[in-house]
Amino acid sequence: MPWSNQNGGGGPWGGGGGNNQGPWGQGPNRPRGGGGKGGPPDLEDIIRRGQDQLRNIIPGGFNGGVAVIVVAIVAVFWLIQCIYVVQPDERGVELRFGKPKDEISMPGLHFHFWPMETVETVKVTVQQLNIGATSASSSNGLMLSSDKSVINVQFAVFYTVSDPKAYLFNVENPAETLQQVSDSAMREIVGRRPAQDAFRSNRQPIEVDVLNILQDTMNRYGAGVTVTGVTIQNVAPPREVADAFEEVQRAGRDRDSTIEEANRYTNQKLGQARGDAARIREDAAAYKDRVVKEAEGEAQRFTAINDEYSKAPDVTRKRLYLETMEQVLKNSRKVIIDEKQGVLPYLPLNELGKPAQQGG
């Protein structure tokens, strides 16, 4: 054609048709969506396709499905708010228009109609409440004892929630109330006793008295709390008088040591005295038995001799005389004197059997 080569092969109006351009000098129409290499995606085309798919999914079209989506979201949110979980160490109390129900929610999954109903949970395991001074320089635990001594007491209160409903609604702040009542009870009991009772082995009566006062007070408040224990953790003098107080403590320990030593000495001497007394009593009892037995034997022998004497008086009298003379003369030196012949030689027959003494 005659216009095919004009202006370097352009169109009939002089527009360059070369380089893949149209007859009006524009490039060829490319497919939407960046069909060429390295071209960015067509955002309008992506949005258009997404709208078409959404119309197919939502019943009634896109305009009618917005309300369905909103209702579904609200329903899911309401259902989430209506379901709650009570942990194993908790108990729950549901409130309907702010008024607590009588039922207690046990551990597990529960349902209530929110927002007309709400739930409050509370832990029912043993909890510890530390009260008093945490350091020697703190004055929170300073208390006055009956002997006018100032001591710094730190103790702990262990409690459980026995009535969740009363715990949540009868007292505005149960934990703070329990702390204040515990501090007041400890000050009352410490004020009745000397300071040494808190420093030494007499802490248990103090702890028992504080527990009784604390439980009675919380019961009168209707706080739904059961106090399981009170433990005195530390007792110390104020920092300003710590040195003087330590001197008093050492003097008290020395006094106790001296008393214990005296008690040991007393027990030792008392044991010895009791042993000597028991031995003397036993010796006296043995002597008594021996003397009684000897007396009974002598009486029986005398009775026997008397019986023999009544049968043969002369013979018995002579035998008694001979036996008596034998006892008298047995161990004495004897000299025989005759009225006519004077001194007679004495033959010591009882010494013949003895061995002769050797000469010097």
From TrEMBL:
<dbReference type="GO" id="GO:0006508">
    <property type="term" value="P:proteolysis"/>
</dbReference>
<feature type="domain" description="Band 7">
    <location>
        <begin position="81"/>
        <end position="249"/>
    </location>
</feature>
<comment type="function">
    <text>HflC and HflK could encode or regulate a protease.</text>
</comment>
<dbReference type="InterPro" id="IPR036013">
    <property type="entry name" value="Band_7/SPFH_dom_sf"/>
</dbReference>
<comment type="subunit">
    <text>HflC and HflK may interact to form a multimeric complex.</text>
</comment>
<dbReference type="InterPro" id="IPR050710">
    <property type="entry name" value="Band7/mec-2_domain"/>
</dbReference>
<keyword id="KW-0645">Protease</keyword>
<keyword id="KW-0812">Transmembrane</keyword>
<feature type="region of interest" description="Disordered">
    <location>
        <begin position="1"/>
        <end position="45"/>
    </location>
</feature>
<feature type="compositionally biased region" description="Gly residues">
    <location>
        <begin position="7"/>
        <end position="20"/>
    </location>
</feature>
<keyword id="KW-1133">Transmembrane helix</keyword>
<protein>
    <recommendedName>
        <fullName>Protein HflK</fullName>
    </recommendedName>
</protein>
<feature type="transmembrane region" description="Helical">
    <location>
        <begin position="57"/>
        <end position="80"/>
    </location>
</feature>
<comment type="similarity">
    <text>Belongs to the band 7/mec-2 family. HflK subfamily.</text>
</comment>
<keyword id="KW-0472">Membrane</keyword>
<dbReference type="Pfam" id="PF01145">
    <property type="entry name" value="Band_7"/>
</dbReference>
<keyword id="KW-0378">Hydrolase</keyword>
<dbReference type="GO" id="GO:0008233">
    <property type="term" value="F:peptidase activity"/>
</dbReference>
<dbReference type="InterPro" id="IPR010201">
    <property type="entry name" value="HflK"/>
</dbReference>
<feature type="compositionally biased region" description="Low complexity">
    <location>
        <begin position="21"/>
        <end position="31"/>
    </location>
</feature>
<dbReference type="GO" id="GO:0016020">
    <property type="term" value="C:membrane"/>
</dbReference>
<dbReference type="InterPro" id="IPR001107">
    <property type="entry name" value="Band_7"/>
</dbReference>
